[in-house]
Amino acid sequence: MQGTVTCGSWIRGPENLNLVVLGKSLKKRDSASPSVLEIFSFDPQTASLSNSPQVTYVFEETEGEPVTIAVHPSGDDFVCSTSKGGCKLLELSGQETKLKLLAKELPPLHDAGPQNCMAFSVDGSKFATGGVDGRLRILEWPSLRIILDEAKAHNSVRDMDFSLDSEFLASTSTDGSARIWKAEDGSAVATLTRNSDEKIELCRFSKDGMKPFLFCAVQKGDKAVTSVYDISTWKKIGYKRLLRKPAAIMSISLDGKYLALGSKDGDVCVAEVKTMEVSHLSRRLHLGTCIASLEFCPSQRVVLTTSSEWGAVVTKLNVPADWKEWQIYLVLVGLFLASAIAFYIFFQNSDSFWKFPHASDRPRGPKFEILDPQYSEDAFGPLDM
């Protein structure tokens, strides 16, 4: 793949046909070439991307390089922030082999400047951006009505994430602080507490539908930990050492079962949320290079990572396989058949009250003669008691 990969993300397609969008800088030492967005198809059998892009969008030279990408949950469109211009909306249409990209302007973000992070809410009704300049915006989607435009939300926005119910937005700053916002009206809810030697750098809400938590990558002196906050009180309830080195990027799977961390020197670890134990570790995946993008595939236990040195890498996780829907139905049918067979065997070998013998097998009882009509019921007369 030619060019330097600057960012990347999955695009959820119909029937688990997922795509990958990559932002690339094609600049050379002696000449300035325009940057591009390329969309690749994904083969789940080989866990690899197609050799050539299905569709390419070329930026104007005045727009600079793509910085970060946020894909709408529907997979129909995505937003790309550039280093010199603002944010651009790209609509995706057509079949997998005949894809088309249509670029549109986003008036509220036309000259917003480069954004460090962007995110859509889980239900797709909100869109948030965090600028290098510290400006935080929350917009209603797709109307683009401005819900929040906080110019000094942070020194510089580092990371952000929406909660599963799309009620809250968490944002972190390059100075180590973290704030919670109400997504509906943009009001500030809380500032996460931290010790003087702690810097909250990254954040992700739990997505498994159980008791909701907020996971934060925290640099605690010379130790890197993952802290857990209860979102009912916004108090820290514990921490765990997972990656054991400074984290550059954080991600959580769509079903909320796994949490991933990417390091500043190219390592990736994946932990099971239920146990908070590391389930997969890829050392030197992007050897010596900071991981810029880290995202779970929407339908496979696969992660996409990008870096400026090694480009895009697709990694299949060494985690227990998930139960497929047809496997669950097969088990249920098997249990039903086993129960039916067991009942039949029990019925055949039991003296059931309802197990009547056939007429030919019934024992013959005593024969009773029909009384002569002249005899009455008291034919024997009164008994002498």
UniProtKB/TrEMBL annotation:
Keywords: Endoplasmic reticulum, Membrane, Protein transport, Repeat, Transmembrane, Transmembrane helix, Transport, WD repeat. Signal peptide: none annotated. It holds the Pfam family WD40. One of its GO terms (biological process) is protein transport. PROSITE patterns: WD_REPEATS_2. InterPro entries: Sec12-like, WD40/YVTN_repeat-like_dom_sf, WD40_repeat_dom_sf, WD40_rpt. One of its GO terms (cellular component) is endoplasmic reticulum membrane. WD repeats lie at residues 155-191. GO terms for molecular function: guanyl-nucleotide exchange factor activity. It comes from the Eukaryota. This is SEC12-LIKE PROTEIN 1. It comes from Salix koriyanagi.
